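[job 0412] stage=complex_fold ligand=zinc ion status=START
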Amino acid sequence: MRAIILERQGEPLKLTTLPEPAPAPGQLKLKIGACGVCRTDLHLRDSEIPATKLPITLGHQIVGRTDDGRRFGVPWLGWTDGTCRFCTTGRENLCPSARFTGRDFDGGYAEYTVADERYCFELPDELTDEQAAPLLCGGLIGYRSLKLAGDAPRLGLYGFGSAAHMICQAAAHQGREVYAFTRPGDRRTQAFAKQLGARWAGGSDERPPELLDAAIIFASAGELVPAALKILDRDGTVVCAGIHMTDIPAFPYDDLYDEKKIRSVANLTRQDGHEWLALAREAQIRTSITKYPLDNAEQALADLRSGAFEGSAVIVP
Ligand SMILES: [Zn+2]
Ligand SMILES: [Zn+2]
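[job 0412] stage=complex_fold status=DONE, emitting structure tokens
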């Protein structure tokens, strides 16, 4: 089969030919219809997070079909031990033995993959493979971030890419006011956010018209954390949604006082996935996608790095 591999971090992805993977007991073999591109893939490519297996086929937002035509979504969480103190208390996202798709196992920038059926999801029928793929990480971990933001009637989203363009729709559907923060001066993305239901959109250096109850930071720039604290009302929460962030600069304690909170989000539970896919169906979440053929995966990552497209990039084998 044709597959894309990352041989060494910091180097371009390469198209290669690999044997089709053979499923182990409990695994499904899937012919891939689409695989979403995630910022984590870019962090692995750019050596911002450590690789655990090289060469590796990246990609953990996989939509594929079994030989008998059943469609499944394969997310980032690929395996857990099921026995540790986190797994047995509803926190399998924190399992120290967890293994992740497209990092510890070969992922979806390929024609075929195998995945443990227990961690795969059924997907809304209304969405094509390409439209559904970004739900599997950007949407899913965005949803976990939204939950951890609490009730928060006024919600800020910093970094309006793949995850935020879905979570904006979900939050608006829940009746929240969404405030979208983009790179300063990025009018195109600000207009995109308003189309998707944001009440206000501006640069990350701007103050929204009201103080907010929570802010989710999807961008990987640590300086956004103290910036977000400054526009939160009392008891507000900053949720850092990414797997990697640059260092957070020092800031005055006053900006954290009044019971403000900062927290991160790590991975997903299968429960998050079921809840999110139900919400995505109910809220009729629509994804804006830019498609790339398999041999253009390196270009997809370059375009993600430079912010060349709105919404989500999807690799189509
Ligand atoms: Zn565990
Ligand atoms: Zn991801």
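The first helix runs from residue 39 to 45.
[job 0412] exit 0
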